[in-house]
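Field log, afternoon session.

UNIT: design team B
ACTIVITY: writing a sequence onto a fixed backbone
BACKBONE:
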């Protein structure tokens, strides 16, 4: 098959690697760049520097078909590229704003290596206006070739990134001209998804608005969960009942220990700081964040209700990653909860199918066990933190017999309260007692 387009992808985290592998799967010739030598060396050996279902196979398949290769050299990446996707990190600055230093650096390095007309496609989440700023900078530089800048935010969920790329609800393209937008849209045409073409600032805003809306739904259902506990209602059925209304929908209405990860918390804080910079208080966004951090305290409160003092207690944790099917611990509720339990004098034994190695580095005092039973053995309480599928298939009778006290705090409402009580557990879900 002849290559459809020649594409460089800059920055090989979850987003960059998924984008590179999927664009190669669609038949394009992709050169994927990261400045981290070790990361590139690992990828060249056909291994992954991170855990994402299906991604290793996609990388290997496309590398073998010579549609995907890895480099640390901007010259090599740009030698024949018609498109350069930027997917570098935009970490949070002290004031909450997203730091665009890596985006600016990538553009500066690219500038020196541009060897023909190029469309820079930005996937990194950047403060609104960054795309226009970069475009004006490049115009001022009076380069020998035409260079366009397009915003194309990503909506990939960790754990299902490949399928989100291949089956998107929509593709958003923010461009200066219809012609450039159309060229980027062509890359996505095989996916058959609706394509929203708009200005660059609007595209950048769609990314923040989407994550803020998702985060708001989670905090709202968590607030409703709290009320459910006071009035004896079941939040899961409340979410089902409300979610059947097509205007509302059922997704992102799981009450629990709150949202974590590399996007939702950071993007809501960035949007809040944008509001502050414009002289207004982000009342709703502040509440979304406050409710979310309070959900961590809810778990501790429930443990105390069941066990009294936490000093000397032994707690088992099931799941550490911020969500299932990833090894990512960024802003994972488990980190805050473990630290608080240790501070209160409890000992904590945890099991996670993928995040153990990372957790060992971040929480040296946490004892990591090889399976969920070992984490529960001798415990005064078990807390389910992440709804990995394997926790749905446990021999819970065996778990109860192994525990010192049969307290189970279900931070993701995985189990049926009645069935758990029948099994002899002192069971507490979120918003359903
Ligand atoms: C999110 C966005 O969904 C994605 O579009 C964006 O590009 C990146 O950020 P991700 O962080 O991978 O993706 O995970 P997501 O599935 O959105 O979950 C985020 C957090 O919310 C997780 O901690 C999850 O456990 C929590 N969550 C999710 C809930 O507490 N309740 C829900 O109903 C859904």
């Amino acid at each position: 098959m002849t290559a459809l387009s020649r594409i460089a992808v800059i920055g090989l985290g979850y987003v960059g690697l998924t984008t590179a592998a999927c664009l190669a799967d669609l038949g394009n010739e992709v050169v994927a760049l990261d400045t981290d030598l070790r990361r590139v060396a690992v990828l060249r050996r056909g291994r992954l520097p991170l855990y994402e279902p299906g991604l290793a196979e996609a990388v290997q398949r496309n590398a073998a078909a010579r549609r995907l290769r890895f480099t640390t050299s901007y010259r090599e990446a740009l030698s024949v590229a018609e498109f350069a996707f930027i997917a570098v990190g935009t970490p949070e600055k002290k004031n909450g704003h997203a730091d665009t230093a890596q985006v600016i650096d990538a553009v500066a390095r690219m500038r020196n290596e541009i060897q023909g007309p190029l469309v820079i496609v930005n996937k990194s989440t950047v403060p609104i206006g960054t795309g226009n700023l970069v475009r004006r900078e490049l115009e001022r530089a009076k380069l020998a070739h035409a260079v366009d800048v397009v915003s194309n935010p990503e909506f990939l969920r960790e754990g299902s990134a490949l399928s989100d790329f291949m089956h998107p609800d929509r593709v958003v393209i923010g461009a200066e001209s219809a012609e450039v937008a159309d060229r980027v849209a062509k890359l996505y045409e095989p996916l058959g998804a609706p394509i929203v073409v708009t200005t660059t600032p609007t595209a950048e805003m769609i990314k923040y608005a989407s994550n803020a809306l998702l985060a708001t739904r989670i905090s709202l259902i968590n607030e409703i969960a709290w009320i459910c506990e006071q009035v004896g209602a079941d939040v899961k059925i409340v979410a089902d009942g409300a979610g059947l209304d097509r205007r509302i929908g059922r997704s992102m209405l799981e009450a629990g220990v709150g949202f974590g990860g590399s996007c939702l918390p950071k993007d809501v804080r960035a949007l809040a700081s944008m509001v502050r910079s414009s002289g207004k208080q982000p009342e709703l966004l502040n509440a979304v964040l406050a409710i979310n951090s309070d959900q961590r305290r809810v778990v501790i409160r429930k443990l105390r209700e069941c066990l009294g003092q936490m000093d000397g207690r032994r707690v088992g944790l099931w799941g550490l990653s911020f969500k299932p099917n990833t090894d990512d611990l960024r802003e994972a509720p488990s980190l805050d909860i473990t630290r608080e339990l240790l501070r209160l004098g409890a000992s904590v034994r945890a099991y996670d199918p993928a995040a153990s190695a990372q957790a060992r580095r971040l929480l040296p005092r946490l004892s990591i066990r090889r399976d969920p039973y070992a984490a529960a053995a001798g415990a005064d309480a078990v807390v389910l933190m992440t709804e990995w599928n394997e926790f749905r298939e446990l021999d819970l009778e065996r778990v109860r017999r192994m525990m010192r006290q049969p307290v189970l705090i279900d931070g993701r409402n995985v189990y049926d309260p009645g069935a758990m009580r029948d099994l002899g557990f002192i069971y507490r879900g979120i918003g359903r007692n």
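LOG NOTE: DSSP finds 17 helices and 14 strands in the chain.
NEXT ACTIVITY: expression trials, pending approval
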